[in-house]
Structure formats: C-alpha cells, structure tokens
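Intended use. Records like the one below are meant for learning the mapping from a protein sequence to its folded structure. Do not use them to infer anything beyond what is encoded.
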Amino acid sequence: MIGDDCWRCRADVDSDANFCSECGAELTESRDDDRAPVERGADRRAKEFRTSRASEYETGSESGYGPDHDVEYDPDQSEYDTSGGEIDGTNDDELLAAAAHLLAIVTWVVGPAIVLVVADDPFVDENARNALNWQIVYTVGMIAATLLSAILIGIPFLIVLPFVNVAVCAIAAVKAYGGETWTYPFTPDFV
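Structure written out for the chain above:
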C-alpha cells in the first residue's frame, strides 16, 4: 500500500493491509485505477445514520416480544381478529358468497345451487341466486351461439362468451368478498 489512507473512505489503514477495515474496499499497490475516493467522512455519516435508524426499532424485552416477555397462548385466539376484537362471522359469509360466484365458473349451476341450499344468510342467498341467474343467461347465450354457428355468426360468441363468464364471475366474487352484492349485466331474476 502506498499511503496510509483508504482510497474509498480515507480511513487510516495499516500499510500491510489488503482490505480497508472500515469500508471493505480492496487496497491496491497502484493508484492508477479509476476509482474515485468517497467524500471524506461520508462513511462515518452513513454509519451514524444506520446506528440512529437501528435505535428506532425496539428489540428484545423492550418491544414486548422475545424470550424475556411472557405472552400466554390463548386457545380461543381464533375467535379474535388481528385488532383484538371479536369476529362477528360476516367474513365467513362474504367468503361463502364469493365462493358461489367462483364455483359457477367450474361447476356451472351445481356450485351456486349447493351454496344456495346450504347457506342460511340472506347475503349469501342473494349472491348465490345472482350466480345461478347468470349461469342460466350464460347457458341460453351458449345455446344460441351454438345454433348460430351453423351459419358462422355464432362462432365468435362461442369463443368470447366463456371469457365473459370468467370475467363477470370474478368481478362478482370480488364484490361479494368486499361485502356488496353485484348484479350481473343483462340478467333477469329467474331464481
């Protein structure tokens, strides 16, 4: 090493050292490289910043977690949400309502019909009915497209309608999971 300073952070280093103990930069015999030295004191300021930021986060017993803090397990913890309040059960209803719409994609009318029979919540019933009504309209549309495919007009509808079915069922499922009932477009109430 030609000097006693690191080329990068300007820290004092031993003359026989290969790497800087402050920044880890490789110390070379030649100064002919194109590496520019870091502004004097920049590494020190960065270290101070990291140290001050680390003190903002509590660790160990100060935070209330860890081996020094006694947290008892509550076997009935499943009855509480993350905010500590009791769950009123509506999330399960929203999930079942969303499932009625998603099941319609795969099982046609069977999934929503089962949800309609099993559910005892009016919100779930309404969503299952909407899913059933849509599947009836979708079926009529597919039958009409199949019949019209004999004269080539129905072929684009046979291609597009399944994608429309997936899209509107997904929209309805998201809305149902959010707690609202979404009425499918162009769908009268059959059920």
